[in-house]
Design brief:
Radius of gyration: 28 Å
CATH class of the largest domain: Alpha Beta
Shape: elongated
Number of domains: 2
CATH topology of the largest domain: TIM Barrel
Strand order of the largest sheet: 1-2-3-4-5-6-7-8
Length: 681
């Protein structure tokens, strides 16, 4: 398993903030019974090999904690002592906010003295690491740029002097000093939203670490990087590569960056909400990328879970969710298939401009050809011979969704888009295509061009599923109002000799635009009814969504997904021919149990890491007997440099042959770069 040489720990004072979630533990005011009881809970969990504690005022309580750890973990438990709560709370404001970075030597020395006192406490409880922060930017509030730069330079000198003293005292104690990298943002919300710390962005932290580690020769110094701080600093997992030589500790944590998210008043900023909370900035994809980066730098240190219950949330539930998210991320990168090396798929090499030009010509000269070709197309006798399906989705541009990665209009290049679709149909065994009318028409004509070249049709016995409602344009005020705009009726779908219909139903309640959801539900129910009358299968995509500053985002959490499934499966007079298309979530076995209808897994936004999607589908398919395949688009069509046919075939093998992710990807890679001359005109 990935990162199997790391130690997993829990930030105790964050996960167990005190009775009623009062943060009394951080303030060193918790009742001893609660303190010891909650630490006992952590020590009883074999998942964790470490614990992170903070200041405990009572000498007797500290001794009791140390004795409890030795008693319950006689073979050792990594103890990290955290100074950050003491520094941030700054009881009675005895020390300047700039702390160990202060340009006032008197204030800076007081800050150092406080850390040295806590260092003694850390040694008393058996800690091997002590974590701290830099203090606020000493130039905070100074508008003159030149003056601010001068003060910051003095602050850099000051923090080096402070760390020199702290590391020197800690060295004979066998304690490593670890500086946590925080955001340097300041907002009116106060310290709970953003920390506004001097050390700050990764480049600043690296320069400081180089000075302390090499110029000052303190090998007992390192840095702590936090996944939530990464987001708040507007960095990416790439930062871990620069931090690699100095990385001594890592925190896995979440944050909320949207002020309009549900419960944003309690969760916005750096407040460590549970994973999966509304408005989460560190979702499963971001966490997977973070963990992947740790694997790539061969990180072998401690990974601490820093999550906090809010309101009536239970510490144990919050910890359990963090475990599930982390395990999912860790498993997702534990795929050692042969990735492209020096290979980069280019669709125009497979689908040349001459092929597109021929499609253009047919559209002008023979506009009736599409319907003629569809009318004589040999179809399957059964929807699915083995009860499972793999279908390629290509209906995103019709809903104003064209972005892939950093390219805002990647799917707006029809040569590239159509070429990738045809690549999947030519070089994989995927069951079929779900698309809007424009795409299906293009594919039918491209298939005709193939036959003109003497090649066999790739549409024979393949499913063609009609995407119906696409009026909910991404980013529009009326986004939840999804009328039938592509294929407008089941009757028309049947007349076109297609194999089924796909519908999108997003539910945003409570939301000021949820009246649009009601309208969409009515249209979907009517469409399902029409399909039932014509014995057409329906692929319904129900999604719980929430409004953000940039539009609606899917809530990939089990409880909202379960509720939305309950609504979706009750539409129309019969569900006899209804399949559901849903995203993979944590605790997917619970989601699968919400219905007896067959489920297809969707892929979501393109990550550029197709093996993550394949691994996710393996886990999803194992969650319930009614999970019957995948209906996936962007992660197949735009899989980074990988050949789309490789990813499509791997998913097909996982679904139909019950292959594991590694075997599926390794077998499918044999198709990489093959049949590239199929469209030779």
């Amino acid at each position: 398993m990935a990162l199997d040489q790391t130690t997993l720990s829990i930030v105790h004072f964050m996960a167990f903030p005190g009775p009623g979630n009062t943060n009394s533990v951080s303030r060193s005011e918790a009742d001893p019974a609660y303190l010891l009881g909650s630490i006992r809970t952590v020590l009883s969990d074999p998942y964790f090999g470490g614990i992170e504690i903070t200041h405990i005022k009572s000498h007797e309580d500290r001794r009791a904690v140390a004795d409890l750890i030795r008693e319950m973990r006689p073979n050792g438990m990594e103890i990290t002592f955290a100074c950050q709560p003491v520094q941030l709370i700054n009881e009675e404001n005895l020390i300047a906010p700039s702390d160990i970075s202060s340009v006032d030597d008197n204030e800076r020395e007081k800050a150092v003295a406080r850390i040295l006192s806590l260092l003694e406490e850390a040694a008393e409880v058996g800690a091997t690491k002590l974590t701290l922060l830099s203090g606020r930017d000493p130039a905070y509030g100074i508008e003159d740029a030149k003056q601010a730069a001068e003060i910051r330079e003095m602050g850099r000198v000051g923090i080096v002097r402070s760390l020199d003293t702290i590391c020197r005292v800690a060295k004979p104690l066998g304690i490593t000093i670890v500086l946590e990298i925080f955001d340097n943002r300041e907002e009116a919300d106060g310290p709970k939203a953003f920390k506004g710390q001097f050390i700050g962005p990764t480049p600043d932290a690296v320069r400081l670490a180089e000075n302390i580690r090499y110029e000052r020769n303190y090998q007992n110094f390192g840095l702590l990087y936090d996944s939530s701080h990464m987001v708040l600093m507007q960095e990416t997992p790439e930062a871990l590569k620069a931090l690699k030589p100095y990385l001594a500790h890592v925190h896995v944590a979440n944050c909320v960056t949207s002020r309009t998210a549900k419960d944003a008043d309690q969760r916005y900023g750096d407040r460590h909400p549970k994973f999966g909370a509304a408005g989460s900035a560190v979702d499963s994809t971001v966490l997977a990328e973070f963990v992947q980066a740790l694997v790539e730098i061969d990180y072998r240190g401690t990974i601490g879970f820093e999550v906090a219950p809010i309101g009536s949330e239970s510490p144990t539930d919050v910890i359990a969710t963090a475990k599930a998210f982390f395990d999912e991320a860790r498993n997702s990168v534990n795929v050692a298939y042969a990735r492209p090396s020096g290979y980069a798929f280019r669709s125009h090499r497979f689908f040349p401009e001459a092929a597109l030009a021929r499609v253009n010509e047919i559209r002008v000269e023979q506009p009736e050809l599409v319907e003629e070709l569809l009318s004589v197309r040999p179809r399957r006798e059964k929807l699915t011979p083995d009860g499972r399906l793999t279908i390629l989705a290509a209906d995103h541009p019709a809903r104003n969704v064209t972005q892939v990665g950093d390219d805002p209009v990647a799917m707006g290049n029809r040569l590239d888009y159509l070429g990738r679709i045809m690549r999947v149909l030519v070089a994989s065994e995927i069951d079929g295509l779900m698309a809007t009318s424009d795409v299906i028409d293009d594919v039918v004509l491209a298939d005709y061009v193939l036959q003109e070249c003497g090649k066999p049709s790739v549409l024979e016995k393949r499913l063609l599923i009609a995407s119906m409602n696409r009026t909910g344009l991404a980013g529009a005020e009326y986004e939840m109002m999804d009328k039938m705009s592509s294929y407008r009726s089941a009757k028309r779908i049947a007349q076109m000799n297609l194999d089924g219909a796909k519908l999108l139903l997003r539910i945003s309640a409570p939301d000021k635009y949820d009246r649009y959801v009601l309208q969409t539900m009515d249209w979907c129910a009517e469409a399902i009814e029409q399909c039932n009358d014509l014995k057409l299968p329906v692929f319904l995509e129900p999604l719980p969504v929430e409004r953000t500053e940039t539009g609606y985002r899917t809530i990939k959490q089990p409880d909202p997904m379960i509720r939305v499934i309950g609504v979706a499966q009750a539409l129309s007079h019969s569900t006899a021919r209804t399949w559901l298309k849903i995203p993979y979530t944590a605790e997917f076995d619970r989601v699968a149990k919400a219905t007896t209808l067959p489920l297809l897994l969707l892929g979501g936004e393109a990550t550029g890491r197709p093996w993550l999607t394949v691994e996710e589908f393996v886990r999803g398919l194992g969650a319930g007997a009614n999970v019957r395949g995948a209906l996936v688009g962007r992660n197949v069509l735009f899989p980074g440099d990988e050949d789309p046919a490789v990813v499509a075939q791997a998913i097909h093998s996982v679904v139909h042959e019950h292959a594991d992710a590694v075997s599926a990807m390794n077998a499918a890679r044999e198709r990489r770069g093959s049949m590239m001359d199929f469209f030779a005109l």
